[in-house]
Amino acid sequence: MSAKPPVTSAAQLHPRNRHQGRYDFAALIAASPGLANYVGKNAFGDESVNFANPAAVKALNRALLKLFYNINDWDIPAGYLCPPIPGRADYIHALADLLALGHKTGIPHGAGIRALDVGVGANAVYPLIGHAEYGWDFVGTEVSDEAMQNAQAILAANPDMAAHIELRRQISSKAIFRHVLDADECFDLTLCNPPFHASQAEADAAARRKWQNLGKDSGKRSPKLNFGGQNRELWCAGGEEAFVCQMVEESVALAGRVYWFTSLVSKSASLTAINRALKQASVTYSRTIPMAQGQKQSRLVAWTFMDRQQQNDWRQRRWLPPSVMLAGG
Questions:
Q1: Could you write out the three-class secondary structure of the chain?
Q2: Is residue 288 in some structural domain?
Q3: Tally of domains in the chain
Q4: What is the pTM of this model?
C-alpha cells in the first residue's frame, strides 16, 4: 500500500485532533455553563474536574461536544459508558487516514462516504464526531432498546446530524453484521469499540484498578469505572478477542461490500488470535495502527478483502464527483 497513516502514541493525539493540550475551561464553560459546577483547582493548582465523578466526566464531555462539534443537549442515562472524547476523535481521524491511502485527492469528505458503527451505544459519539469532522453518513447498530432511545434523543436535538445518522436495532445479541444490513448494501468503513472484558469479574477488577489509581477505592464496595458502562458495553463471553474474531468471520460474507473493516483492540494480547482469524479469512490486506486512548495505549485493527485494483475501482465508482467521472471517461 502507499504511505502509512500517521502513528499516534499514548502521549500524542492525532495531528488533526482538536483536543491537543490542556482543556480551556473558560471556553468550555462558556459553551456549556453547567460544567462550572464541576470545575475546581486540583492538587497542582490547575483547573480540572474530578475524573472519579461520573457526573463531572459527563459534563466535560457535553461541553467538549458543544464547543468543538456544535452538538446540543448531549446526555446519557446513568451508568452508561461515558467515552473520553479525545480518544474517540482519534479513531475517526485514523479512519480518515485509512480512506486516504491510495486516494489521489486525499481524505474523502461528504455524505458519499458511508460508515457502519457496530454498537453505537447510548452516546452515539462516533457518528456525531465523524459527521462533524468529515461530513460522512453513518448507520449505527445497537442491541439495547434503552441505548437506542437515548441515541435517538440526541439526534432529535441535533436535526442537522439526524439527517445523516441512521440507527438500527440489532435483534440478536449474538450477531454483529448479520440481521442489520440490507441486501447488497455497501459501506466504505465499519468501526467498533468492542466490549473489552471476558466476564463481569474481569470488568470489576479493571474498575477497581482504576479507582485505586485515582486514590478512591476503599476496598469496601464494588467499584464502577469513572466512565461508566453497562454489562454489554464492558464485557462479553471471550472478551474483545472473541468478539473481533467473530467480526472477522462474519466479514467474509461482506467481502465485496465493505472497503475497510476496523475495530479497536485494547489488549495487545488479543492480537495473536485476531491475526490468526484474519489469516484464516484470507483477507487481502490488514493493518494494526497504534492509537492514543487517554493515558492507555491502544490500537485499531483494519482489514480489507479488496486488492489494489478493486480498491481503485471502488474509489472511482463511489467517491469521485459525477463530473470528474464523466471527464475521465
A1: CCCCCCCCCCCCCCCCCCCCCCCCHHHHHHHCHHHHHHEEECCCCCEEECCCCHHHHHHHHHHHHHHHHCCCCCCCCCCCCCCCHHHHHHHHHHHHHHHHCCCCCCCCCCCCCEEEEECCCCCCHHHHHHHHHHCCEEEEEECCHHHHHHHHHHHHCCHHHHCCEEEEECCCCCCCCCCCCCCCCCEEEEEECCCCECCHHHHHHHHHHHHHHCCCCCCCCCCCCCCCCCHHHHECCCHHHHHHHHHHHHHHHHCCCEEEEEEEECCHHHHHHHHHHHHHCCCCEEEEEEEEECCEEEEEEEEECCCHHHHHHHHHHHCCCHHHHHHCC
A2: yes
A3: 1
A4: 0.85
